[in-house]
Amino acid sequence: MTRAAWLIVISGLALQGCTPPKPVRLGAPIEGYSHTSAAINRFSVNRGGGPNISPYSGGGKQNCCASLPVKWHPGLTVVVEWVKDPDPYAYGRWPERVFSDAWSKRMEEHKTRYTRHRAVVPVARYEELGLVNVHFLPCNQVAVSAGATYPGRPDYPFHFPQKIQEPATCPES
After folding, report:
1. What does the pLDDT look like over 122-151, one tens digit per residue?
2. Residue 79 domain boundaries
3. H or E element that contains 53
4. Cis link prior to 65 (omega < 30° from 0)?
């Protein structure tokens, strides 16, 4: 190879280093919605933490971040883990003075009733990666979207009512 050819090859390789590669994955903020009477005390998406959520509420609070592909692809799933308090207002009925030793002891006992869950959940199709929305539904079901749209818009993939009653019995998974 001639000296000029080598210079062209080396120059071409050097110029490639000037253009950063497009990311394959990005961190997307996480937001949650509880459509049940339970509180979601903690949750994560692919180990990225989400905010705690009161019963029948959500949105407006975001945590960072869930790692997701920039481009959606068929079969895309995330791992959602959460801790649920099935009786989040119990302490309001306790006779003990709030934050007293007796109250703290009762709270520790109450925490033993929290349930822990883990689900591998499909991610709704998205054209552009955006906010990761996690919907907690009755019977420990979860729905996840990650696009540049949000609940209430016609193009949002889910249209759950804010309050969904838990059935008397849940189907076996």
Report:
1. 999 999 999 999 999 999 999 999 998 889
2. 24-147
3. none
4. yes
